[in-house]
Every structure is written in structure tokens, then in C-alpha cells.
Prior knowledge:
The protein contains six helices and two strands. By secondary structure, the chain is mainly alpha-helical. The longest helix is centred in the first third of the chain and has 19 residues.
Amino acid sequence: MTKLFALTAAALMVSSTASFAAGDAVAGEKGFNKCKSCHMIVDGDNTIVKGGKTGPNLYGIMGTAIASGDFKFGAGISSVAEANPDMVWTEELVAEYVVDPSAFITTYGGNGKSKMTFKLKKGGEDVAAYLASVAPAQ
């Protein structure tokens, strides 16, 4: 009985930690202001956020394969895609990437530099939640 209680308590702690890590899309919209000098969010003719073209358009990024689309990605993130052909962007991965793109590349078996030199010091989960909120309906 004690083991069952301990396992149940541990499961509850893990599930509450996972839900606590979710980002705030409203805060992420404000945080995205740091990203828009290089990135836009555009769905065809509908511009959600007018931004730069140095980085890829981030509309609908959630659920897409890493380094996919019509953007010329750098060697680092492209090598992550080659090492992990089934890997797709999730809120968790986007939040991890924006904090330290070079570390992300190394962690997931890639090599080479990231074209993204900016590091978001805090709020990665919020920006990821915002990007998920402006994605196409699934």
C-alpha cells in the first residue's frame, strides 16, 4: 500500500510539473517583439506579425519537421534535422531552442553553428505558447 501511495504521489508531481511548465501566450506575444526583427508570422496574405526576413516565417511552425520549409537554414540546425528525421517542433523544443540555439544543436546530435545568434534569456515557454496560439487549426 505504501508503494502504491508513493507511486501515485510521484505521478501527480510529474504531471503537475509538466503542466506548470506551459507558457503564457499573452506574455509570449509581448516577448515575440524581440524576435520580430528577424522573424515574421505570415499566413499567405494574412500578416499576423510583420517582421524581418533574416529568419524563417514562424507561422504554423508547431508540428513541422525541424529545418523544413522554403527557408535556407544553417548547417547546425540542418544537421539536427538529418540526425533526427522524425523530429518536429513542439512548444518544449521551441522554448529550449530560443534560450540557446547552439546548445540545442549539440544536444540533438547536430554540428555546426546556428544562424540564430540571439538568445532569449527568459520567456521561451511564453513565446512558444504564443507561436502555438497563432498556428493553423489542427
